Amino acid sequence: MIRCNVKPDNYTYPFLLNSCAALCDLNHGCEVHGRVVKSGFCSIVEVFNALIDMYGKCGKLGCARKVFDEMPQRDVVSYNAVLGAYARVGDDMGDAQMIFDEMPVRNLISWNAMVVGYVNNGDLDSARATFDKMSEKNVVTWTTMLVGYTKNKMMDMAKVLFEAMPEKTLVCWTAMISGYAQNGQPNEALRYFRRMQGVHVKPDAFAMTAVISVLAQLGRPDLANWIMTLVNQEGIERNVKVLTSLVDMHAKCGNIEEACRLFEEIPQPDVYPYSALITGLASHGHGIRALEVFQKMLMAKVEPDYITFVGVLNACSHTGLVDDGLAYWESMINDYKIEPDADHYACVVDMLGRAGRLEQAYKMLKSTPMDPHPAAFGALLAACRTYSNVEIAELVAQELFILEPNNTGNYVLLSGIYAEREQWDEAERVRKAMKKKITAKLPGHSWVESNKYGKVYSGPV
């Protein structure tokens, strides 16, 4: 058009700017802005609105606000465009509230922008206050508030809101399923999926990925097979995310061959399917195969992350490859610049403990910069029993008594270590300490009504 010397008008520039916004193409958006200035269309409200929208969708809140402030005239679209820019970023919601308050006319889009902005800002109280003031709400309003609650682990509030929703879309059902899954409540997540099926809401790939992650937490092979049948029946797209979730689920459920088969379906696997397969193989006693997959990953030039190394270290622990495991530990820190966390330390401690290198394991455990890991101390205490090392067992047990004061299993284990060494006085001392812990706790009671006899039973839980 430009080469043919056809001059754009006030209708042309909004279309161009909307295209730049849809593509998040800031460079071309700035170029069009320059042409707008040179062409003298700076007084056209529709052009200004398109500029604000373009800068907002490209993440340039400051530029969007500057254009808004320079407008000689504004309409409701102008206000909504700048509020949308604030909402996407989720910052400076105080400024957004001032703009909202000065609006001469507001519509549903204006209110929704404020709810979205406060949710993105993590300010759920202000989001809910705005939500409650709205005389009219649509599915966007309800869904935004619901997603805000689920992402912030406020599942009780999410549940109340969900049940009150006049229209429950697939996005809402998926939000509830994902929310419960991410909050460690897989059975509740599965219950919502069953409810969703009951009202004939068809899942998409995103929803199915959330459900598959739930079943991965439950670790039940029967449910894994059921969801595979459902994926095929519903014609769910087997994209990378779905396949990765299936690999993870089958690996965690112990269906190793199926996990490997699905992994091969992924055309160019990235770090996530590799990590899922490696950790699954390692946790189910296939340490050598896990390390082979890791080598394949490195040959494919896929860079491992911290989850990958949890699987690799776990594999070395179960296969007794201590020196290899320590070499991978050093490589993780020095080559890949990954800061080890409690899980990595726990794997190395377990690996050293299994190999009988108890002093080295204890020193490693005490050198962790983060809070002590009870599972790692527990693994080391078990290793002390295997190798009859009373000295380190006493040190580890004292740590565990502080970390897990009500876990009587630690007392039993230490008592057993003393008994195996025929240190009967020490064994009795630990048993007495355990009995004090048990009697210090008030017993819980459960009232259970019998449907058959109509009687009530009261007894200790």
UniProtKB/TrEMBL annotation:
GO BP term, pick one: system development
PPR repeat intervals: 44-78, 107-141, 169-203, 270-304
Keywords per UniProt: Repeat
InterPro entries on file: E_motif, PPR_At4g14850-like_plant, PPR_rpt, TPR-like_helical_dom_sf
UniProt key word Repeat: yes
Keyword Transport recorded: no
Top-level division of the source organism's lineage: Eukaryota
GO molecular function: RNA binding
PANTHER family named among the record's database cross-references: (WILD MALAYSIAN BANANA) HYPOTHETICAL PROTEIN, PENTATRICOPEPTIDE REPEAT-CONTAINING PROTEIN
Name of protein: Pentatricopeptide repeat-containing protein
Organism expressing this protein natively: Chenopodium quinoa
